[in-house]
Amino acid sequence: VPLSVLDLAPIPAGGTAGQALRATIELAKRAEELGYQRFWVAEHHNMPGIASSAPPVLIGHLADATSRIHVGSGGVMLPNHVSLVVAEQFGMLEALHPGRIDLGIGRAPGTDPATAAALRRSPEGLGPDEFPEQLTDLIGFFSGEWPEGHPYASITAVPGLGNGPAMWLLGSSGYSAQVAGLLGLPFAFAHHFSAANTLPALARYRQRFRPSAGLSEPYAMIAASVVCADTDERARYLAGPSGLSFLRLRTGRPGPLPSPEEAAAYPYTDLDREIIESRRGSAIVGAPDTVRRGLAELLDATDADELMITAQLHDPADRVRSLELVAEIAAQVKSGAPVGS
After folding, report:
1. Cβ within 8 Å of residue 213, ≥6 positions away
2. pTM over 0.85
3. Each residue's pLDDT tens digit in the chain (341 positions)?
4. Please, which residues have CB within 8 angstroms of residue 154's CB and are 6 or more apart in sequence?
């Protein structure tokens, strides 16, 4: 099963957005060296701990810094943008880096309602009901194929037309799974924050799949939170900041990613721990043996065609080390060697 990476360019406490973005570029370079299939960055807004608010800009830097690995969005939140601009941006990326650009599309705003309205300067077009039309328009700008009499048929997306990237639909429920299946697109599911919906969504995608010009059979990728370190104890310690960060986000206090020391010393209440566990329950955290078992169980349950791993770690060196250990696990599984040999 191919392995890929999702990164949010986390801004650690005491760090800057510039440092976070440069760390993400270095992480992509190392992921390529380790043989990962693709490296995606996600669109989030009004979150002080996440620097990847403009995926097309960051993707351009990632593509320039690498040579083989596919780079893309996981995803671009389509309700925040007009389809023509997305087609122009990703058409330009594909023209500059042919065959290496992925356009993963989501239908959620990726932020709070006030920020979503500020992105569009209007509350109109922010609901999920407009998503199918936006998506159809986006495909039309890339292909140049429009229904007769369509008002956009006279518009040429330059350089989008003829430079269509690999398009994916992202989802955390059954809605995008169904749309991806009907359009014959590959589907990426956010298991890392919607684990209860993973199996139903994958089943719906596969049931509704219709072959398309670009894809003859269903292709499903799942994104999972994976933290691997030399020991189980060390991995749990490193994973602590993501739990505290999620707690602060849920309670209206988002901020930079705290350090492991801060997370370990935080005075959690019982309710705090319940909130964190609701998000962290699907995470795979531990030493190589623990992670290998967790990944094997996840892949057996989902029959996923590709696995995308993500980790919110305070120190970029720990993120790199986690990717290295997971790559070692994959290599050992392929060779039949026992993990740790």
Report:
1. 184
2. yes
3. 999 999 999 999 999 999 999 999 999 999 999 999 999 999 999 999 999 999 999 999 999 999 999 999 998 999 889 999 999 999 999 999 999 999 999 988 778 888 888 887 666 655 667 888 999 999 999 999 999 999 999 999 999 999 999 999 999 989 999 999 999 999 999 999 999 999 999 999 999 999 999 999 999 999 999 999 999 999 999 999 999 999 999 898 999 999 999 999 999 999 999 999 888 879 999 999 999 999 999 999 999 999 999 999 999 999 999 999 999 999 987 766 655 43
4. none
* C-alpha dist (Å) from residue 30 to 19, 179, 306, 335: 17, 34, 19, 22
In the chain, where does DSSP find H-type helix? 17-33, 55-65, 83-96, 113-120, 131-143, 174-183, 198-208, 232-250, 260-265, 270-280, 288-302, 316-335
Distance CA 182, CA 150 (A): 22
